[in-house]
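Q: What would this chain look like folded?
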Amino acid sequence: IAQALKKLPVPKLMRWGDSDVQFVRPVHGLTVLHGSRVVPAEVLGLSSGNVTSGHRFLCAEPVTIAQADDYEATLARDGRVVASFANRRDSIAARLDQLAEQNRAIWIGHANFDLAKLLAMSNEERSVLSGLLDEVTGLVEWPEVYVGEFEPEFLEVPPECLILTMQQNQKYFPLLDAHSGKLLNKFLIVSNMQISDPHHIIEGNQRVVRPRLADARFFFNQDRKQKLEARVEKLGDVVYHNKLGSQLQRVERITSLAGTIARLLGADKADAELAARLSKADLLTDMVGEFPELQGIIGHYYALHDGEKPEVASAIEAHYHPRFAGDTLPQGGLACAVALADKLETLLGIYGIGQVPTGDKDPFGLRRQALGILRILIETPLDLSLPSLLKAAAENFPAAMLAPTVAAEVEGFMLDRLRGYLREQGFDVAQIEAVLAVLNGRLHEVLPRLQGVHTFAGLAVAKDLAAANKRVQNIMRKNAEELGELAQAAVNPALLQDAAERELYQAIQDITPMARGYFERGDYSNNLKTLVTLKPFIDDFFDKVMVMAEDKALRLNRAVLLQQLGRLMNQSADISKLAA
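A: My prediction, written as C-alpha coordinates:
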Protein backbone atom coordinates (compact mmCIF):
# COMPACT_ATOMS: atom_id res chain seq x y z
CA ILE A 1 0.00 0.00 0.00
CA ALA A 2 2.77 2.41 0.95
CA GLN A 3 4.59 1.76 -2.34
CA ALA A 4 1.40 2.31 -4.33
CA LEU A 5 0.77 5.63 -2.58
CA LYS A 6 4.31 6.78 -3.35
CA LYS A 7 3.71 6.17 -7.06
CA LEU A 8 0.67 8.44 -7.18
CA PRO A 9 1.37 11.47 -9.45
CA VAL A 10 0.92 14.07 -6.67
CA PRO A 11 2.52 17.40 -7.72
CA LYS A 12 2.63 18.90 -4.22
CA LEU A 13 2.75 17.17 -0.82
CA MET A 14 1.93 18.55 2.62
CA ARG A 15 2.60 17.77 6.27
CA TRP A 16 0.10 18.02 9.13
CA GLY A 17 0.24 17.99 12.91
CA ASP A 18 3.54 17.03 14.52
CA SER A 19 4.27 14.24 12.05
CA ASP A 20 6.80 14.14 9.25
CA VAL A 21 4.36 12.12 7.12
CA GLN A 22 3.55 13.71 3.75
CA PHE A 23 0.54 13.25 1.48
CA VAL A 24 -1.69 15.33 -0.77
CA ARG A 25 -4.11 15.97 2.15
CA PRO A 26 -4.16 15.08 5.88
CA VAL A 27 -5.04 11.42 6.50
CA HIS A 28 -6.82 10.60 9.77
CA GLY A 29 -7.83 6.97 9.36
CA LEU A 30 -6.81 3.76 7.61
CA THR A 31 -9.24 0.94 6.81
CA VAL A 32 -7.73 -2.26 5.40
CA LEU A 33 -9.99 -5.31 5.15
CA HIS A 34 -9.90 -8.69 3.47
CA GLY A 35 -13.41 -10.02 3.78
CA SER A 36 -14.24 -9.47 7.46
CA ARG A 37 -10.61 -9.65 8.62
CA VAL A 38 -8.57 -6.53 9.36
CA VAL A 39 -5.25 -6.71 7.54
CA PRO A 40 -2.49 -5.43 9.85
CA ALA A 41 -0.75 -2.48 8.24
CA GLU A 42 1.09 0.73 9.11
CA VAL A 43 0.73 3.38 6.40
CA LEU A 44 1.24 7.15 6.60
CA GLY A 45 1.79 6.82 10.33
CA LEU A 46 -1.58 5.14 10.90
CA SER A 47 -2.50 1.63 11.99
CA SER A 48 -5.17 -0.21 10.02
CA GLY A 49 -8.64 -0.98 11.36
CA ASN A 50 -12.25 -1.47 10.28
CA VAL A 51 -13.60 1.90 11.40
CA THR A 52 -13.97 4.98 9.21
CA SER A 53 -15.66 8.38 9.39
CA GLY A 54 -18.95 9.35 7.82
CA HIS A 55 -20.36 12.73 6.77
CA ARG A 56 -18.94 15.56 8.86
CA PHE A 57 -22.35 17.01 9.76
CA LEU A 58 -24.87 14.25 9.06
CA CYS A 59 -23.05 11.40 10.83
CA ALA A 60 -21.88 11.92 14.39
CA GLU A 61 -20.61 8.40 15.11
CA PRO A 62 -17.74 6.41 13.57
CA VAL A 63 -18.80 3.88 10.93
CA THR A 64 -17.75 0.25 11.34
CA ILE A 65 -17.20 -1.72 8.13
CA ALA A 66 -18.02 -5.37 8.83
CA GLN A 67 -17.23 -6.72 5.36
CA ALA A 68 -14.98 -5.31 2.64
CA ASP A 69 -17.67 -6.01 0.04
CA ASP A 70 -20.14 -3.92 2.06
CA TYR A 71 -17.91 -0.83 2.19
CA GLU A 72 -19.93 1.36 -0.19
CA ALA A 73 -23.34 0.26 1.07
CA THR A 74 -22.39 0.64 4.75
CA LEU A 75 -20.81 4.04 4.22
CA ALA A 76 -23.91 5.28 2.39
CA ARG A 77 -26.38 3.83 4.91
CA ASP A 78 -24.60 4.65 8.15
CA GLY A 79 -22.22 7.41 7.16
CA ARG A 80 -24.19 9.45 4.62
CA VAL A 81 -21.29 9.28 2.15
CA VAL A 82 -21.48 8.16 -1.49
CA ALA A 83 -18.04 6.60 -1.88
CA SER A 84 -18.07 6.21 -5.67
CA PHE A 85 -17.04 9.30 -7.63
CA ALA A 86 -18.94 8.03 -10.68
CA ASN A 87 -22.13 7.49 -8.67
CA ARG A 88 -21.91 10.95 -7.10
CA ARG A 89 -21.31 12.51 -10.50
CA ASP A 90 -24.25 10.68 -12.06
CA SER A 91 -26.61 11.65 -9.26
CA ILE A 92 -25.56 15.31 -9.45
CA ALA A 93 -25.96 15.35 -13.25
CA ALA A 94 -29.43 13.79 -12.96
CA ARG A 95 -30.54 16.44 -10.46
CA LEU A 96 -29.05 19.23 -12.58
CA ASP A 97 -31.03 17.94 -15.55
CA GLN A 98 -34.21 17.59 -13.49
CA LEU A 99 -34.13 21.07 -11.93
CA ALA A 100 -33.09 22.72 -15.20
CA GLU A 101 -36.03 21.08 -16.96
CA GLN A 102 -38.40 22.26 -14.21
CA ASN A 103 -37.20 25.81 -14.89
CA ARG A 104 -37.41 25.39 -18.70
CA ALA A 105 -33.66 25.86 -18.85
CA ILE A 106 -30.35 24.16 -19.55
CA TRP A 107 -27.39 24.21 -17.17
CA ILE A 108 -23.86 25.29 -18.09
CA GLY A 109 -20.95 23.39 -16.61
CA HIS A 110 -18.01 24.40 -18.79
CA ALA A 111 -16.47 27.59 -20.13
CA ASN A 112 -17.91 27.45 -23.65
CA PHE A 113 -19.47 30.76 -24.60
CA ASP A 114 -20.96 29.49 -27.85
CA LEU A 115 -24.50 29.62 -26.47
CA ALA A 116 -26.07 28.32 -29.68
CA LYS A 117 -23.89 25.21 -29.48
CA LEU A 118 -24.81 24.75 -25.82
CA LEU A 119 -28.51 24.85 -26.67
CA ALA A 120 -28.03 22.17 -29.31
CA MET A 121 -26.28 19.78 -26.91
CA SER A 122 -28.02 16.92 -25.17
CA ASN A 123 -27.91 16.62 -21.38
CA GLU A 124 -25.46 13.75 -21.77
CA GLU A 125 -23.14 15.81 -23.98
CA ARG A 126 -23.17 18.70 -21.50
CA SER A 127 -22.41 16.28 -18.68
CA VAL A 128 -19.46 14.68 -20.49
CA LEU A 129 -17.90 18.08 -21.24
CA SER A 130 -18.42 19.56 -17.78
CA GLY A 131 -15.20 20.19 -15.93
CA LEU A 132 -17.19 22.01 -13.23
CA LEU A 133 -19.28 18.89 -12.67
CA ASP A 134 -16.10 16.90 -12.08
CA GLU A 135 -14.84 19.57 -9.70
CA VAL A 136 -17.95 19.79 -7.51
CA THR A 137 -18.25 15.99 -7.48
CA GLY A 138 -14.89 15.94 -5.74
CA LEU A 139 -16.07 18.52 -3.19
CA VAL A 140 -19.17 16.74 -1.87
CA GLU A 141 -19.96 13.40 -0.21
CA TRP A 142 -23.76 13.38 0.09
CA PRO A 143 -24.79 15.66 -2.77
CA GLU A 144 -28.01 17.51 -3.38
CA VAL A 145 -28.81 20.28 -5.87
CA TYR A 146 -30.86 23.40 -5.09
CA VAL A 147 -32.06 26.39 -7.14
CA GLY A 148 -30.84 29.88 -6.26
CA GLU A 149 -31.73 33.30 -7.68
CA PHE A 150 -30.22 36.75 -8.02
CA GLU A 151 -31.67 40.16 -8.83
CA PRO A 152 -32.67 40.56 -12.52
CA GLU A 153 -30.86 43.92 -12.81
CA PHE A 154 -27.53 42.07 -12.84
CA LEU A 155 -28.52 40.70 -16.25
CA GLU A 156 -27.51 44.09 -17.70
CA VAL A 157 -23.93 42.80 -17.48
CA PRO A 158 -22.81 40.59 -20.42
CA PRO A 159 -23.83 37.00 -19.70
CA GLU A 160 -20.29 35.68 -20.18
CA CYS A 161 -19.12 37.79 -17.21
CA LEU A 162 -21.88 36.52 -14.93
CA ILE A 163 -21.38 32.93 -16.07
CA LEU A 164 -17.66 33.03 -15.22
CA THR A 165 -18.35 34.73 -11.90
CA MET A 166 -20.80 32.03 -10.87
CA GLN A 167 -18.74 29.13 -12.19
CA GLN A 168 -15.25 30.10 -11.08
CA ASN A 169 -15.86 31.94 -7.84
CA GLN A 170 -18.89 30.08 -6.48
CA LYS A 171 -18.92 26.72 -8.33
CA TYR A 172 -22.54 27.32 -9.37
CA PHE A 173 -24.19 26.10 -12.57
CA PRO A 174 -25.78 29.05 -14.43
CA LEU A 175 -29.05 28.46 -16.26
CA LEU A 176 -29.93 29.47 -19.83
CA ASP A 177 -33.47 29.74 -21.13
CA ALA A 178 -33.95 26.54 -23.13
CA HIS A 179 -35.62 28.39 -26.02
CA SER A 180 -34.00 31.83 -26.27
CA GLY A 181 -30.57 30.89 -24.92
CA LYS A 182 -30.60 33.97 -22.67
CA LEU A 183 -29.07 33.78 -19.22
CA LEU A 184 -31.65 33.48 -16.45
CA ASN A 185 -31.36 35.09 -13.02
CA LYS A 186 -31.23 31.59 -11.55
CA PHE A 187 -28.45 29.12 -10.85
CA LEU A 188 -28.02 25.61 -9.48
CA ILE A 189 -26.13 24.97 -6.24
CA VAL A 190 -24.50 21.62 -5.53
CA SER A 191 -24.60 21.20 -1.76
CA ASN A 192 -23.04 18.60 0.53
CA MET A 193 -26.25 18.45 2.56
CA GLN A 194 -29.50 16.62 1.83
CA ILE A 195 -31.95 18.14 4.30
CA SER A 196 -35.72 18.59 4.38
CA ASP A 197 -35.62 22.40 4.71
CA PRO A 198 -32.76 23.82 2.63
CA HIS A 199 -33.83 27.47 2.71
CA HIS A 200 -30.83 28.45 4.87
CA ILE A 201 -28.48 26.82 2.36
CA ILE A 202 -30.16 28.57 -0.58
CA GLU A 203 -30.29 31.97 1.15
CA GLY A 204 -26.66 31.70 2.19
CA ASN A 205 -25.53 30.98 -1.36
CA GLN A 206 -27.70 33.77 -2.77
CA ARG A 207 -26.19 36.16 -0.23
CA VAL A 208 -22.57 35.36 -1.12
CA VAL A 209 -23.07 35.54 -4.90
CA ARG A 210 -24.44 39.11 -4.86
CA PRO A 211 -21.09 40.80 -4.08
CA ARG A 212 -19.46 38.78 -6.86
CA LEU A 213 -22.08 39.86 -9.37
CA ALA A 214 -21.82 43.44 -8.10
CA ASP A 215 -18.06 43.34 -8.73
CA ALA A 216 -18.65 42.18 -12.30
CA ARG A 217 -21.16 44.99 -12.83
CA PHE A 218 -18.68 47.50 -11.38
CA PHE A 219 -15.88 46.32 -13.68
CA PHE A 220 -18.22 46.49 -16.67
CA ASN A 221 -19.37 50.04 -15.91
CA GLN A 222 -15.89 51.32 -15.06
CA ASP A 223 -14.26 49.85 -18.15
CA ARG A 224 -16.76 51.50 -20.47
CA LYS A 225 -15.79 54.95 -19.23
CA GLN A 226 -12.66 54.68 -21.38
CA LYS A 227 -12.77 53.74 -25.05
CA LEU A 228 -10.70 50.89 -26.39
CA GLU A 229 -8.86 53.29 -28.69
CA ALA A 230 -7.68 55.27 -25.66
CA ARG A 231 -6.10 52.14 -24.22
CA VAL A 232 -4.10 51.17 -27.31
CA GLU A 233 -1.09 53.43 -26.72
CA LYS A 234 -0.86 52.18 -23.13
CA LEU A 235 -0.04 48.75 -24.55
CA GLY A 236 3.42 50.23 -25.11
CA ASP A 237 3.99 49.89 -21.37
CA VAL A 238 3.16 46.18 -21.42
CA VAL A 239 6.00 43.80 -22.32
CA TYR A 240 4.94 41.08 -24.75
CA HIS A 241 8.33 39.34 -24.77
CA ASN A 242 11.71 40.81 -23.94
CA LYS A 243 13.00 39.79 -27.39
CA LEU A 244 9.86 40.82 -29.30
CA GLY A 245 9.02 44.15 -27.73
CA SER A 246 5.82 45.52 -26.22
CA GLN A 247 2.21 44.59 -26.81
CA LEU A 248 1.89 47.81 -28.81
CA GLN A 249 4.69 46.77 -31.16
CA ARG A 250 3.02 43.39 -31.47
CA VAL A 251 -0.32 45.05 -32.29
CA GLU A 252 1.36 47.17 -34.96
CA ARG A 253 2.71 44.02 -36.62
CA ILE A 254 -0.70 42.31 -36.43
CA THR A 255 -2.39 45.42 -37.85
CA SER A 256 -0.08 45.61 -40.85
CA LEU A 257 -0.46 41.91 -41.62
CA ALA A 258 -4.24 41.96 -41.13
CA GLY A 259 -4.52 44.71 -43.74
CA THR A 260 -2.45 42.68 -46.21
CA ILE A 261 -4.55 39.54 -45.70
CA ALA A 262 -7.84 41.47 -45.85
CA ARG A 263 -6.85 42.86 -49.25
CA LEU A 264 -6.12 39.34 -50.50
CA LEU A 265 -9.51 38.16 -49.26
CA GLY A 266 -11.43 41.10 -50.67
CA ALA A 267 -12.37 42.32 -47.19
CA ASP A 268 -12.30 45.95 -46.08
CA LYS A 269 -8.63 46.74 -45.38
CA ALA A 270 -9.33 49.72 -43.11
CA ASP A 271 -11.82 47.77 -40.99
CA ALA A 272 -9.38 44.87 -40.65
CA GLU A 273 -6.62 47.21 -39.55
CA LEU A 274 -8.94 48.90 -37.03
CA ALA A 275 -10.08 45.58 -35.57
CA ALA A 276 -6.46 44.44 -35.30
CA ARG A 277 -5.42 47.71 -33.67
CA LEU A 278 -8.15 47.34 -31.03
CA SER A 279 -7.78 43.58 -30.65
CA LYS A 280 -5.54 43.65 -27.56
CA ALA A 281 -6.88 46.82 -25.91
CA ASP A 282 -9.18 44.88 -23.61
CA LEU A 283 -6.12 43.27 -21.99
CA LEU A 284 -5.87 46.49 -19.96
CA THR A 285 -9.47 46.38 -18.70
CA ASP A 286 -10.51 45.43 -15.17
CA MET A 287 -12.79 42.72 -16.53
CA VAL A 288 -9.99 40.86 -18.30
CA GLY A 289 -7.76 41.44 -15.29
CA GLU A 290 -10.32 39.52 -13.22
CA PHE A 291 -11.28 36.99 -15.90
CA PRO A 292 -8.55 36.47 -18.55
CA GLU A 293 -10.90 34.06 -20.35
CA LEU A 294 -12.95 37.09 -21.42
CA GLN A 295 -10.23 38.60 -23.62
CA GLY A 296 -11.75 39.32 -27.00
CA ILE A 297 -15.26 38.58 -25.75
CA ILE A 298 -15.44 41.68 -23.57
CA GLY A 299 -13.57 43.63 -26.25
CA HIS A 300 -16.51 42.86 -28.55
CA TYR A 301 -18.96 44.41 -26.08
CA TYR A 302 -16.79 47.44 -25.43
CA ALA A 303 -16.24 48.06 -29.15
CA LEU A 304 -20.00 48.09 -29.73
CA HIS A 305 -20.39 50.49 -26.80
CA ASP A 306 -17.72 52.73 -28.39
CA GLY A 307 -19.73 52.86 -31.63
CA GLU A 308 -17.52 50.63 -33.76
CA LYS A 309 -19.05 48.69 -36.64
CA PRO A 310 -20.56 45.34 -35.62
CA GLU A 311 -18.21 43.48 -37.98
CA VAL A 312 -15.19 45.19 -36.39
CA ALA A 313 -16.44 44.29 -32.91
CA SER A 314 -17.05 40.70 -33.98
CA ALA A 315 -13.54 40.43 -35.42
CA ILE A 316 -12.07 41.57 -32.10
CA GLU A 317 -13.71 38.60 -30.40
CA ALA A 318 -13.22 36.09 -33.22
CA HIS A 319 -9.52 36.75 -33.71
CA TYR A 320 -8.77 34.34 -30.84
CA HIS A 321 -10.74 31.54 -32.51
CA PRO A 322 -10.34 28.62 -32.69
CA ARG A 323 -9.24 28.49 -29.04
CA PHE A 324 -9.46 24.73 -28.58
CA ALA A 325 -10.27 21.55 -30.50
CA GLY A 326 -13.72 21.75 -32.03
CA ASP A 327 -14.06 25.48 -31.41
CA THR A 328 -15.87 27.66 -33.94
CA LEU A 329 -13.88 29.43 -36.64
CA PRO A 330 -13.95 33.18 -37.36
CA GLN A 331 -16.64 34.03 -39.88
CA GLY A 332 -16.09 36.32 -42.87
CA GLY A 333 -13.00 37.74 -44.51
CA LEU A 334 -12.53 40.54 -41.98
CA ALA A 335 -12.50 38.27 -38.93
CA CYS A 336 -10.36 35.66 -40.71
CA ALA A 337 -7.80 38.30 -41.69
CA VAL A 338 -7.35 39.47 -38.09
CA ALA A 339 -7.35 35.92 -36.69
CA LEU A 340 -4.72 34.76 -39.18
CA ALA A 341 -2.59 37.84 -38.60
CA ASP A 342 -2.64 37.33 -34.83
CA LYS A 343 -1.72 33.65 -35.03
CA LEU A 344 0.94 34.15 -37.70
CA GLU A 345 2.57 36.94 -35.71
CA THR A 346 2.68 34.77 -32.61
CA LEU A 347 3.99 31.75 -34.48
CA LEU A 348 6.70 33.57 -36.45
CA GLY A 349 7.77 35.69 -33.50
CA ILE A 350 8.06 33.02 -30.83
CA TYR A 351 9.50 30.44 -33.23
CA GLY A 352 11.89 33.01 -34.66
CA ILE A 353 13.52 33.72 -31.29
CA GLY A 354 14.18 30.03 -30.76
CA GLN A 355 11.25 29.11 -28.51
CA VAL A 356 10.48 25.96 -30.50
CA PRO A 357 8.08 23.37 -29.02
CA THR A 358 9.89 20.26 -27.83
CA GLY A 359 8.26 17.02 -26.74
CA ASP A 360 5.30 17.84 -24.54
CA LYS A 361 6.58 21.35 -23.81
CA ASP A 362 4.89 24.15 -25.70
CA PRO A 363 4.62 27.09 -23.26
CA PHE A 364 3.48 29.56 -25.91
CA GLY A 365 0.91 27.25 -27.47
CA LEU A 366 2.53 27.28 -30.91
CA ARG A 367 1.02 23.93 -31.87
CA ARG A 368 -2.43 25.31 -31.08
CA GLN A 369 -1.72 28.48 -33.07
CA ALA A 370 -0.51 26.43 -36.04
CA LEU A 371 -3.58 24.22 -35.94
CA GLY A 372 -5.79 27.30 -35.77
CA ILE A 373 -4.21 28.69 -38.94
CA LEU A 374 -4.59 25.35 -40.69
CA ARG A 375 -8.24 25.00 -39.71
CA ILE A 376 -9.10 28.52 -40.88
CA LEU A 377 -7.39 28.02 -44.25
CA ILE A 378 -8.75 24.51 -44.82
CA GLU A 379 -12.20 24.51 -43.30
CA THR A 380 -13.38 28.01 -44.25
CA PRO A 381 -11.82 27.53 -46.93
CA LEU A 382 -9.57 30.45 -47.95
CA ASP A 383 -7.65 30.68 -51.23
CA LEU A 384 -4.39 31.85 -49.67
CA SER A 385 -0.83 30.57 -50.04
CA LEU A 386 0.71 29.45 -46.75
CA PRO A 387 4.31 30.24 -47.84
CA SER A 388 3.22 33.72 -48.91
CA LEU A 389 1.46 34.32 -45.59
CA LEU A 390 4.52 33.22 -43.64
CA LYS A 391 6.80 35.42 -45.76
CA ALA A 392 4.52 38.44 -45.24
CA ALA A 393 4.39 37.79 -41.49
CA ALA A 394 8.18 37.51 -41.24
CA GLU A 395 8.66 40.78 -43.14
CA ASN A 396 6.69 42.66 -40.45
CA PHE A 397 9.46 42.06 -37.91
CA PRO A 398 12.63 44.19 -37.77
CA ALA A 399 15.35 42.63 -39.89
CA ALA A 400 17.60 41.48 -37.05
CA MET A 401 14.86 40.27 -34.72
CA LEU A 402 14.20 36.84 -36.25
CA ALA A 403 16.37 34.14 -37.76
CA PRO A 404 16.48 34.58 -41.57
CA THR A 405 15.22 31.04 -42.18
CA VAL A 406 12.24 31.32 -39.84
CA ALA A 407 9.52 31.34 -42.53
CA ALA A 408 10.80 28.10 -44.07
CA GLU A 409 11.22 26.48 -40.65
CA VAL A 410 7.71 27.43 -39.56
CA GLU A 411 6.32 26.09 -42.84
CA GLY A 412 7.92 22.72 -42.09
CA PHE A 413 6.56 22.84 -38.55
CA MET A 414 3.07 23.59 -39.87
CA LEU A 415 3.21 20.84 -42.48
CA ASP A 416 3.97 18.38 -39.69
CA ARG A 417 0.91 19.67 -37.83
CA LEU A 418 -1.06 19.37 -41.07
CA ARG A 419 -0.14 15.71 -41.42
CA GLY A 420 -1.35 15.05 -37.90
CA TYR A 421 -4.57 17.00 -38.50
CA LEU A 422 -5.31 15.02 -41.67
CA ARG A 423 -4.54 11.67 -40.03
CA GLU A 424 -7.04 12.57 -37.30
CA GLN A 425 -9.58 13.16 -40.08
CA GLY A 426 -9.06 9.52 -41.06
CA PHE A 427 -7.00 9.98 -44.23
CA ASP A 428 -4.39 7.44 -45.32
CA VAL A 429 -0.75 8.45 -44.83
CA ALA A 430 0.28 7.64 -48.43
CA GLN A 431 -2.67 9.61 -49.80
CA ILE A 432 -1.76 12.57 -47.59
CA GLU A 433 1.82 12.54 -48.91
CA ALA A 434 0.55 12.26 -52.49
CA VAL A 435 -1.44 15.48 -52.09
CA LEU A 436 1.15 17.42 -50.10
CA ALA A 437 3.77 16.70 -52.78
CA VAL A 438 1.93 18.92 -55.30
CA LEU A 439 -0.10 21.27 -53.08
CA ASN A 440 2.26 24.27 -53.18
CA GLY A 441 0.82 25.76 -50.00
CA ARG A 442 -2.78 26.09 -51.26
CA LEU A 443 -4.29 24.48 -48.19
CA HIS A 444 -7.90 25.18 -49.17
CA GLU A 445 -7.48 22.47 -51.82
CA VAL A 446 -6.18 19.75 -49.50
CA LEU A 447 -9.50 18.16 -48.49
CA PRO A 448 -11.07 18.02 -51.97
CA ARG A 449 -7.80 16.68 -53.41
CA LEU A 450 -7.66 14.02 -50.71
CA GLN A 451 -11.23 13.02 -51.44
CA GLY A 452 -10.26 12.68 -55.10
CA VAL A 453 -7.19 10.59 -54.28
CA HIS A 454 -9.22 8.40 -51.93
CA THR A 455 -11.71 7.70 -54.72
CA PHE A 456 -8.90 7.05 -57.23
CA ALA A 457 -7.11 4.68 -54.83
CA GLY A 458 -10.17 2.46 -54.82
CA LEU A 459 -9.95 1.83 -58.56
CA ALA A 460 -8.64 -1.53 -59.75
CA VAL A 461 -5.89 0.07 -61.85
CA ALA A 462 -4.76 2.61 -59.24
CA LYS A 463 -1.74 0.62 -58.04
CA ASP A 464 -0.56 -0.06 -61.60
CA LEU A 465 -0.85 3.61 -62.55
CA ALA A 466 0.95 4.61 -59.35
CA ALA A 467 3.78 2.19 -60.17
CA ALA A 468 4.00 3.53 -63.72
CA ASN A 469 4.16 7.08 -62.42
CA LYS A 470 6.94 6.09 -60.04
CA ARG A 471 8.85 4.54 -62.95
CA VAL A 472 8.46 7.76 -64.95
CA GLN A 473 9.79 9.81 -62.04
CA ASN A 474 12.76 7.50 -61.55
CA ILE A 475 13.73 7.83 -65.21
CA MET A 476 13.45 11.61 -65.05
CA ARG A 477 15.43 11.81 -61.81
CA LYS A 478 18.29 9.59 -63.04
CA ASN A 479 18.65 11.70 -66.17
CA ALA A 480 17.89 15.08 -64.64
CA GLU A 481 21.13 16.71 -65.75
CA GLU A 482 20.70 15.83 -69.43
CA LEU A 483 16.99 16.62 -69.34
CA GLY A 484 17.26 19.89 -67.44
CA GLU A 485 17.21 21.96 -70.61
CA LEU A 486 13.91 20.37 -71.68
CA ALA A 487 11.70 21.66 -68.87
CA GLN A 488 9.41 23.51 -71.27
CA ALA A 489 10.11 21.49 -74.40
CA ALA A 490 7.34 19.96 -76.53
CA VAL A 491 7.28 16.50 -78.05
CA ASN A 492 8.35 16.36 -81.69
CA PRO A 493 5.79 13.97 -83.31
CA ALA A 494 8.15 13.38 -86.25
CA LEU A 495 10.63 11.66 -83.92
CA LEU A 496 8.07 9.19 -82.56
CA GLN A 497 9.22 6.04 -84.41
CA ASP A 498 7.46 3.20 -82.59
CA ALA A 499 3.72 2.65 -82.73
CA ALA A 500 3.57 2.37 -78.91
CA GLU A 501 5.04 5.81 -78.35
CA ARG A 502 2.85 7.37 -81.05
CA GLU A 503 -0.26 5.84 -79.46
CA LEU A 504 0.72 7.04 -75.98
CA TYR A 505 1.39 10.52 -77.33
CA GLN A 506 -2.02 10.60 -79.03
CA ALA A 507 -3.79 9.31 -75.91
CA ILE A 508 -2.18 12.09 -73.86
CA GLN A 509 -3.31 14.70 -76.40
CA ASP A 510 -6.84 13.30 -76.37
CA ILE A 511 -7.44 13.36 -72.62
CA THR A 512 -5.40 16.42 -71.62
CA PRO A 513 -8.16 19.01 -72.32
CA MET A 514 -10.71 16.97 -70.35
CA ALA A 515 -8.30 16.35 -67.47
CA ARG A 516 -7.31 20.00 -67.36
CA GLY A 517 -10.95 21.05 -67.31
CA TYR A 518 -11.71 18.81 -64.35
CA PHE A 519 -8.62 20.06 -62.54
CA GLU A 520 -9.41 23.74 -63.07
CA ARG A 521 -12.95 23.19 -61.75
CA GLY A 522 -11.56 21.47 -58.66
CA ASP A 523 -13.03 18.10 -59.65
CA TYR A 524 -9.97 16.14 -58.60
CA SER A 525 -11.75 12.79 -58.53
CA ASN A 526 -12.66 12.91 -62.22
CA ASN A 527 -9.29 14.45 -63.06
CA LEU A 528 -7.63 11.33 -61.69
CA LYS A 529 -10.18 8.97 -63.22
CA THR A 530 -9.25 10.19 -66.70
CA LEU A 531 -5.88 8.49 -66.19
CA VAL A 532 -7.54 5.08 -66.36
CA THR A 533 -7.76 5.31 -70.15
CA LEU A 534 -3.98 5.75 -70.33
CA LYS A 535 -3.10 2.45 -68.66
CA PRO A 536 -2.94 0.19 -71.75
CA PHE A 537 -0.91 2.78 -73.66
CA ILE A 538 1.54 3.23 -70.74
CA ASP A 539 1.95 -0.54 -70.38
CA ASP A 540 2.54 -0.93 -74.11
CA PHE A 541 5.06 1.91 -74.14
CA PHE A 542 7.21 0.44 -71.36
CA ASP A 543 6.98 -3.05 -72.88
CA LYS A 544 8.06 -2.04 -76.38
CA VAL A 545 9.97 1.26 -76.28
CA MET A 546 13.57 1.78 -75.13
CA VAL A 547 13.41 5.20 -73.49
CA MET A 548 17.17 5.62 -73.11
CA ALA A 549 17.94 5.10 -76.81
CA GLU A 550 21.49 5.62 -78.08
CA ASP A 551 20.28 8.31 -80.48
CA LYS A 552 20.21 11.47 -78.35
CA ALA A 553 17.37 13.09 -80.30
CA LEU A 554 15.15 10.03 -79.84
CA ARG A 555 16.17 9.73 -76.20
CA LEU A 556 15.35 13.34 -75.37
CA ASN A 557 12.08 13.27 -77.29
CA ARG A 558 10.94 10.19 -75.38
CA ALA A 559 11.99 11.85 -72.13
CA VAL A 560 9.88 14.88 -73.03
CA LEU A 561 6.95 12.54 -73.73
CA LEU A 562 7.35 11.00 -70.26
CA GLN A 563 7.69 14.46 -68.77
CA GLN A 564 4.37 15.40 -70.36
CA LEU A 565 2.83 12.17 -69.06
CA GLY A 566 4.12 12.89 -65.55
CA ARG A 567 2.61 16.37 -65.52
CA LEU A 568 -0.73 14.97 -66.59
CA MET A 569 -0.67 12.22 -63.98
CA ASN A 570 0.43 14.50 -61.12
CA GLN A 571 -1.97 17.42 -61.47
CA SER A 572 -4.17 16.53 -58.49
CA ALA A 573 -1.63 14.48 -56.55
CA ASP A 574 1.69 12.72 -56.94
CA ILE A 575 0.14 9.29 -57.35
CA SER A 576 3.56 7.62 -57.28
CA LYS A 577 3.25 7.92 -53.48
CA LEU A 578 0.48 5.31 -53.66
CA ALA A 579 2.80 2.67 -55.11
CA ALA A 580 3.53 -0.24 -52.77
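The chain has a mean pLDDT of 94.
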